[in-house]
Amino acid sequence: MKVTDIVEKLGLSVYCDKGLDNEITGGYVSDLLSDVMGNAQEGQIWITLQNHMNVLAICSLKDLSAVMLVKGIKPADELLKKAEEEGIPVIGTREQTFEVAGKVYQLIGS
Q1: Is the pTM of this model over 0.90?
Q2: Percent of the chain with pLDDT over 90
């Protein structure tokens, strides 16, 4: 499933539209950066409330497909600038992490 498919099916906001054709192979939910660095896998979508430059550094390092911000959090300007440079899609939802993670799991099944 592509990032754009999840955006459409869940009615998500798109803050950075670079890389919307990235393939999603799974998901990872964590707000602890070291946890994501140590355990997220290439191709996953990262669901988080973290909203700063280090998020994009980790996405790039781990070759994640996208980052999804929860609870209506809007991305910081510096995060969006880096997302554009790196070609990493930044999407968002007003939903709580638990709710949207369940929906993403239902869509991609992993």
Answers
A1: yes
A2: 98
| 105: number of Cβ within 10 Å | 13
Which has the closest alpha carbon to 84: 104, 48, 50, 59?
59
Cα–Cα dist 87/66, whole Å: 9
Q: How many angstroms from the chain centroid is the CA of residue 45?
A: 5
103, with CB counted inside 10 A (0-12, 13-18, 19+), is middle
- pLDDT at 64 exceeding the cut of 70: yes
Nearest one of 6, 21, 23 to 107, comparing CA atoms: 6
Residue 110 has pLDDT above 80, yes or no: no
